[in-house]
């Protein structure tokens, strides 16, 4: 999950802004427009403030504070690129204007230009090596860039400098907490958050960071509570609502999660396209969990419309397409995500699923072999990669190699119950391949205990009953899956084969027709259907021939009876009647 932790923005901008009028002396006309702009700004009329600052600049273009205040107003309107241009002008006029560097870096952060922000902050740190704010903001950008160890180093540097400003120190601990969480050091992350809040209990980012640490522990209730705390101290905190939507998904409280996404979008005014893209991506994920796949697709496409360079939006699009059976299109979306972010683990995992559905097992294996070398600290990620790798080996009937992959997946101790269920389901499939049905049934039961809607478990369990000639159990297993809206071609195929073995050919044909309806190009199902149809045809021919033979036999019997009746026997006495 990506986090957006905005830091310093509100406090640094407002405090600096308020201090400006008292230290500047200009010509009357320029001063009038400057104060007019300040009044508009304080009333929240940012465009009017910009117009006034422009008038001041037109009269006297050499005053850096005019550009500085204009930049702040532009920032509040979400016009970050324009604000950056104004800060450049400030620095050009006064290279010692410290806050222009910091605020420009903030604008670069808002536009996801983390490398540029870091480069600018390095320049700032050279100029002001004793100012902890530069290190703190650099650490934040390193965190968002995914350089967690370096972010941690920067945060520690701020902490070691013991800044007098408790707000900056608190923020350093918040950054440290998030970096530690991403490095898998959750207990240390929580301790860092506690320290951050002891320093400043109004630090919304500390609550957000603590929520993220709880989320990593799957403690969804605690994570949600931290978001509520963040909202309490900062009611307009978009990040808190966005993160809360994710945590609510973990509790399957989907309607509330949608409400959080809508609230985040409402607060994102004027619309920052990067933030809005992330909001719609979250919304797509919630709709996907609600099995509203078409709506999830529309939300993902909306996210892409706002930010065509956001990798996770393409993952959302690909997942929705896959659920609609559009696997080729889904792979295109996942490839785009990987192109934009080669470390997007979710894209690799989801692409592997689509490759499995297309039965492109060699490609699946190659993809997973590459993905398992990715630099990630998330055990669930590696468990998922080895799970998908096992699916590839199962597809080419290399059951021994599949078993090794599943053992490796379990070594990572995945915490996601759905992932764990799939591991056991694939274990069952491997055991079926090795003809060890007792173990296979045990693994299937484990899978269904963890996730009662685990499609793979129903498939493998159905095959077990089929092989053991427990045909009624096989049909019952398939019907249970269908009742749970697990409508896959393999389920109907198993059901069809079970009916065929029971001699219920019409029912078998109906099930196989349904299987082909779901996967029209599957040659194996086509063959089974043709075989059953042939049996039905032969049975019909047999019935016709049998009927004909019965009719013929009846006709022969009737004929014989009639012939017998016509031939009446002659008595001996009649032979001598004419002789007397």
Provide a short characterization of the protein structure.
The chain crosses the membrane at residues 541-563. The chain has 580 residues and is mostly helical. It contains 30 helices and no strands.
Verbal overview:
By secondary structure, the chain is mainly α. The chain has a domain of 83 residues: Alpha Horseshoe (Serine Threonine Protein Phosphatase 5, Tetratricopeptide repeat). It contains 30 helices and no strands. Helix 16 runs parallel beside helix 18 and helix 19 packs antiparallel against helix 20.
Characteristic key phrases:
580 residues, Serine Threonine Protein Phosphatase 5, Tetratricopeptide repeat, 0% strand, disordered N terminus, Tetratricopeptide repeat protein, TPR repeat, membrane
């Amino acid at each position: 999950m990506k986090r957006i932790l905005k830091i310093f923005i509100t406090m640094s901008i407002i405090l600096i802004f308020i201090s400006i009028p008292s230290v500047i002396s200009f010509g009357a006309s320029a001063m009038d427009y400057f104060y007019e702009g300040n009044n508009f700004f304080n009333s929240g009329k940012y465009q009017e403030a910009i117009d006034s600052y422009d008038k001041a600049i037109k009269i006297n273009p050499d005053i850096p504070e005019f550009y500085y205040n204009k930049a702040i107003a532009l920032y509040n309107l979400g016009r970050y690129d324009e604000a950056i241009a104004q800060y450049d002008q400030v620095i050009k006029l006064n290279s010692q204007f410290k806050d222009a560097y910091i605020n420009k870096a903030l604008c670069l952060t808002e536009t996801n230009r983390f490398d540029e922000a870091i480069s600018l902050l390095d320049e700032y740190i050279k100029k002001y090596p004793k100012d902890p704010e530069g290190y703190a903001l650099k650490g934040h950008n390193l965190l968002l860039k995914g350089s967690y160890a370096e972010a941690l180093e920067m945060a520690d540097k701020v902490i070691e400098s013991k800044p007098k400003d408790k707000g900056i120190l608190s923020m350093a601990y918040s950054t440290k907490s998030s970096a530690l969480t991403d490095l898998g050091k959750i207990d240390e992350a929580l301790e860092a958050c506690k320290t951050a809040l002891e320093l400043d209990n109004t630090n919304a980012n500390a609550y957000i960071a603590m929520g993220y640490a709880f989320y990593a522990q799957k403690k969804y209730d605690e994570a949600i509570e931290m978001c509520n705390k963040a909202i309490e101290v900062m009611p307009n905190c978009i990040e808190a609502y966005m993160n809360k939507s994710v945590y609510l998904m973990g509790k399957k409280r989907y309607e509330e999660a949608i409400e959080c996404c809508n609230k985040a979008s409402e607060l994102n005014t004027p619309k920052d396209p990067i933030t809005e893209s992330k909001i719609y991506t979250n919304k797509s994920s919630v709709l996907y969990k609600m099995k509203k796949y078409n709506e999830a697709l529309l939300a993902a496409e909306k996210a892409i419309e706002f930010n065509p360079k956001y990798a996770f939006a393409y993952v959302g699009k690909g997942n929705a397409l896959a659920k609609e059976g559009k696997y080729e299109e889904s792979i295109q979306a996942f490839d785009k995500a990987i192109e934009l972010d080669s470390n997007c683990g979710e894209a690799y995992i989801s692409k592997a699923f689509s490759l499995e559905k297309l039965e492109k097992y060699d490609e699946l294996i190659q993809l997973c072999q590459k993905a398992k070398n990715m630099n990630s600290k998330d055990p669930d990620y590696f468990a998922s990669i080895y799970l998908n790798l096992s699916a590839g080996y199962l597809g080419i009937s290399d059951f021994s190699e599949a078993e090794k992959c599943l053992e490796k997946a379990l070594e990572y101790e995945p915490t996601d119950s759905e992932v764990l269920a799939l591991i056991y389901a694939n274990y069952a499939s491997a055991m079926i391949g090795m003809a060890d049905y007792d173990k296979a049934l045990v693994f299937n039961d484990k899978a269904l205990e963890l996730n009662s809607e685990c499609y793979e478990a129903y498939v493998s369990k159905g095959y077990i009953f089929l092989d053991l000639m427990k045909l009624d159990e096989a049909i019952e297993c398939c019907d249970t899956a269908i009742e749970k809206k697990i409508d896959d071609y393999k389920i109907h195929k198993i059901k069809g084969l079970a009916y065929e073995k029971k001699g219920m050919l019409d029912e078998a044909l109906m099930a196989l027709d349904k299987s082909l309806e779901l996967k029209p190009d599957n040659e194996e199902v086509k063959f089974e259907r043709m075989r059953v149809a042939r049996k039905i045809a032969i049975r019909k021919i047999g019935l016709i021939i049998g009927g004909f033979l019965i009719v013929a036999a009846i006709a022969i019997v009737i004929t014989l009876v009639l012939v017998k009746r016509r031939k009446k026997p002659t008595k001996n006495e009649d032979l001598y009647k004419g002789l007397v």
